[in-house]
Batch of 2 targets.
Target 1
Amino acid sequence: MPQIFHPSANTLSRLSILVALVAAAGSVTIFYLIMRSPYQTQVKVIPTQPIPFPHEHHVRGLGLDCRYCHTSVEESSFAGLPPTHTCMTCHSQIWTKAPMLEPVRQSLASKKPIHWQRVHNLPDFVYFNHSIHVQKGVGCASCHGPVQKMSLTWKDQPMNMEWCLTCHQKPEAHLREKRDVFNMEYSPSEEEQLSLGKDLVRRNNVPVDRMSNCSVCHR
Amino acid sequence: MAEPVYEMPAFRDETLKVLAPGHTYKTVTDDISGVVLRRPYDRRWFVIMAIAFSLVSVLHLAIAYLLLRGVGVWGINVPVMWGFAIVNFVWWIGIGHAGTLISAILLLLKQDWRTSINRFAEAMTLFAVACAGMFPLLHLGRPWVFYWLMPYPNTMDLWPQWRSPLIWDVFAVSTYGTVSLIFWYVGLIPDLATLRDKAKNSIARTIYGAMAMGWTGASRHWHRYKMAYLLLGGLATPLVVSVHSVVSFDFTIAVLPGWHSTIFPPYFVAGAIFSGFAMVISIAIPLREWYGLKGFITMRHMDNMAKITLATGMLVGYGYMMEAFMGWYSGNPNEMFTQLYNRPFGPYAHTYWMMLGCNVLAPQFLWFRYFRQNMFWLFIISILVNVGMWLERYVIIITSLHRDFLPSSWSMYHGTIWDYMTYYGTIGFFLFLFFLFVRVLPAISITEMRELVHETQHHGGGHHVGAHGTAAPTSEGGA
């Protein structure tokens, strides 16, 4: 009877064991990398907006406070996106003919809100509340990054559960005095931050022992 | 060449031989490989496959609807959060146990009657585990994130909850599935080589050849094969006991009357082997009848399996008795209510009494040789045991859950059409895989049967099968 397989099949079959091992380890590694890549987390990815709104110009250039537009951040779960009227407090007077602002004028005329693309979108099974974070002293920049430097807005942090928990387990590394929450240029040294943070955890009654409970975020 | 016909030592009953007289290396090889290689047209096979495949389609439909609408399509509610899915899971996992017991424990105990039934019993184990695995995954609600059950470096900073028996289940069942698969495959290798050598079709020859992994029947191959097989047998042995013990922890760890009991692990293992052997009997009867394998799966095998079914059935009956006794002896009003009132006389009393009828009463007939050796009655009893063991899990899960500590949350549970479709669908899936297996792989180990011929011819009785490395060469069948 003739041989079914060429003698090279011996080498190939041994090689296939190696290939299987490499493929198994490789696919786990690739999934691990994808999971943390901007492809999955959208970090530093700039979504296309109907108007190329520059936070850099408005915050650093003009010195607008975050709360001028995001009005409900101190008392609501949702920070609030400004209605067209907020834009028009200035833009009814300046740059009234700018073609870039045409969608704003149209929105005002047609009474249809501007269709902004969300930059930070948490899954529905996560309960997140802006106001409690602001009240306990988490600065805007801690989660949203240097917004005053963003000519176009991007997501600065991955916002996966692991990232949330780094602060929920050790909040003293991020807490600020109430007056510095909206201060975009705030940058204490590490020692300053830790000693102040520990003090703030106590003063603001931050319940660190309960902050990793499932039901804090998954209700 | 005239093979000497070996006369077995005088058994009390002439039918109780492990191999019909007159078999040679050639007849063993031809008869068993013929089922696969010649594939004679068989209408019964097509009928079974048609029924099984229709049920697989029903299963697809049920799963698709479940994924579309969520687990609310099932009958589960509060407080009965575990319904058919867990009943079926435990039932299927239990059925698998006979395969492991036959292949591992009986191998180590050198029982010569295991050789003709181990291959298809192991296949049955694998297919039963495949059916069982489906239920907890579907019960997750979001089965596509099933990998959250595994510890892996994730972005959630989460680790599985090691205090939960459901996580122990994941490891117990996946270990069980892996070891059973490897054990089955290693046992198949010499037979795959036989099929490779005997196949006329070049595609079949290539596939069997690749699966045989270059087996030549060299003594070095046999030596390593025997060693690997024995080691795997040793590895699989604790699994016979551990897997269903862990499954029973799903219940015992909870502080619910009727669940929180120390008798559960041994009682579950006995029940698993009981239902497993019943399933092996239910499969062996048509298999030996239809494929002319009565010379290999003899009355000895049927008789022994019936005896094990009887023995484990008695253990299960003892378990029922002890549950009721402990319910009374504990003096705990909730235990008493569950064990002494709600199960025997509550709204699910009919299930309880049917369970006792199927699991305790029906096997009593197996005390008599007539019932052990009458294939019609044996088949009926084995089916009753399978039904009874399903009812047992139903009784344990539903009666304990539907009357929990808070009477305000008491409720009734009934499976919906989607529950039944999923359950019957997995039975179809099991039959489909099994009857496919019968036609593509040897349902009985050719190698071990040739060893049995050798033993009976040269060593005066088949009491030392697998004990030493002698075996017929692979291509003997063609001689």
Note: Residues 153 and 159 of chain B are 9 Å apart (CA to CA).
Target 2
Amino acid sequence: MDALLPLAHGMAVALQPANLLYALIGVFLGTAVGVLPGIGPALTVALLLPVTYKLDPGGSLIMFAGIYYGGMYGGSTTAILINTPGESASMATALEGNKMAKAGRGGPALATAAIGSFVAGTIATLGLAFLAPWLVEIAVKFGPEDYFALMCLAFVTVSATFGDSPVRGLTSLFVGLVLGLIGIDKLTGQARLTFGVPELLDGVEVTTLAVGLFAVGEALYVASRRRHEPEQLEKVRGSLWMTREDWRRSWKPWLRGALFGFPIGALPAGGAEIPTFLSYAVERRLCQYPDEFGKGAIEGVAGPEAANNASAAGTLAPLLTLGLPTSATAAMMLAGFQQYGLNPGPLLFAERPDLVWGLIASLFIANGMLLVLNLPLVGLWVRLLAIPQPWLYAGILVFATMGTIAAKPSVVELTMLAAFGVLGFLMRRYDYPIAPVVVGLILGPVAESQLRRALSISLGDPMVLVQSPFAATLLALALLALIAPFVLKGLSRFRAEED
Amino acid sequence: MSTWSKAVIAILLAATVAVAGCAGEALAQNDLKIMAPAAPGGGWNQTARAMQQALVAEGLAKSVQVYNVTGAGGSVGIAQFVTTSKGDPHQLMVNGLVMVGALLANRSPVTLDQTTPIARLTAEALVIVVPASSSIKNAQELAAAVKADVAKVTWAGGSAGGVDHITAALFVEKAGGDPSKVNYIPFSGGGESLAAVLGGKVTAGISGWGEYEGQIKAGKLRAIGVTSAQRLPGNDTPTLREQGVDLVIANWRSVVAPPGITPEQRADLIALIERMAKSSAWLDLLKQKGWEDDLLAGDAFAAFLREEQTRVKAVLTSIGLIKP
């Protein structure tokens, strides 16, 4: 608990009026850019770096942290309302969140996302304050084989959880894995499946795929259904606010989401996607109302949103204690530190405690501000859903296209967006889950690199993959998760025959 | 709601832009556009934005706009640069050693020969580190390990074919090993490779001095040699050369103009960049970022660029990344 005193000092720094203002600007900008697909927090911080050069280091870093948290927050709003995840980490939120919105429960969905983010963000920031150095010691021990095992677990849980059957989930996953092969092979520098198109050398952009599959695919699907089914506008049912039942069903997923998000976010190659999907998978298993999943279960929003925000705090742990940026935004924040001649790392806590603890303290404040900023907006946001469908979806298409162009202005990118839109439409039409495709694209290349790194380090000995106890445990869990559904199915059939 | 919040966002954005605009009093008449052919976050982006800051602060340019074109170590950026900016003396592109390697490895149809070289600006020495717990104490011992079995020495660093990879290959070659057998494990960005070295997963790590500095000072990594010709100022890490491994390499960054500009326009740009590179605003920025001033302008830079292309091509061929 030796972190309490410095934290109190940090609070004093963060509560200075100027710093409060920076935090406010940060969370506001962050929320705004999180809402727009394509313009992420990393780009925003990059654009602001030269601007903040003249500000004092504490203030601008506090602002950057606000942007980071705000971005994680804002991404969920569009995911829930119009099925367009602003960030890849909000994809899991879109799955149930959008279903809730369509069933007239957009208000509670946004509320549980906002409160869950606040709760998990606060828990994770506490974790950052008290556990960071210890956690990082462990994270560094994580070798390529452990990452590979973690990815395997993520693949299995995702494909087994989404969709009606594991086979369909796996099919989607493999589509994503193939897309992930496009581009320069990270280990040998050779181009794969690029067909001479230079824009493909860096691979398929995750946001392009996600926006294409989710938003454009959805718009096409809705358009195709219109002739057959009369438009039914779901009125916002019941309260905008969460009911007692909603609270009861949300609080455990919030806590579990934080437990997934923070440690995995702190891993040097963890990221925000794995914890959100793991959280979704776990909530689906644990939910008392499994039938609701796929139709708008509040647990499926609460858990992933909490995990998403907790992982943002998690990434700050290696950044502050080791100078290890583990996400694009963290890398920009590192550049922000360096612009003041500060090198995050083991010495920063000793050299500039005011700065570090001021930053950590301001994360609590940013979290509170986000809640205050977002909850009143819920009522306004849900009115978006009252827009007649043709207008809404036309708007979504414009929005999706603009976001893609903003991120990467090229014809190839737009063509891909359109192609993924058609793919998303077909997958929806024939009942294939779309989330595993995106997971495959994100994690496939990582899993491949880690596997090959592990083998390269062991000079080709495959035993390295199971020698680390951690990797062995994860792989065993993955195997279990893959086999369990079949075994359970077999058992239940067996029982049914006995009756 | 949306109009209200959009208005607030617009005001906030406008305010931040206005703050940026006030940073320097505009004196000069020229507008410049600088392409950083990489994502925000990397060295080229930082170089471009530092140039923007210095040019505006010194009143050398009325306005400077930096834009990022990401892709394949700059291959996408340079292709766009030579076609769309052809003959435009208000356009510049930041590049460096990494682009030389990337263009060769990607068999890019566009090469740096198609641009108009302006000046080399900075250089960053690389450092080879081992985990503090490693039995290897200096460059000689590492060279001996390499000689004993090349494949058993695992190296961690940045992308394949990049400057870290080139350095590892050159080290193996100088140590008397076969560079085609170098067991180099690329990581994306300095962060991940740092974790691999700290965790003792690899024998040695290579990166810019800045990325490992904190851990070296904290005693968790042992710096066994820098790749500069002389020791770095204020730093007692020996060079590789003084330890008997004759390897000098720096990750340099430079700026080029589009093809098809007139000799006068080229001379103007060289003069402009030279003035910027000697300004106090620029030198302050270098100090902050820990970059070494390595100014080399005009024809001398053009000659240097050709030499580096030849050298990198030879190394990448010896690793087997490009076919001869």
Note: The domain at 27-123+252-319 of chain B is CATH 3.40.190.150 (D-Maltodextrin-Binding Protein; domain 2).
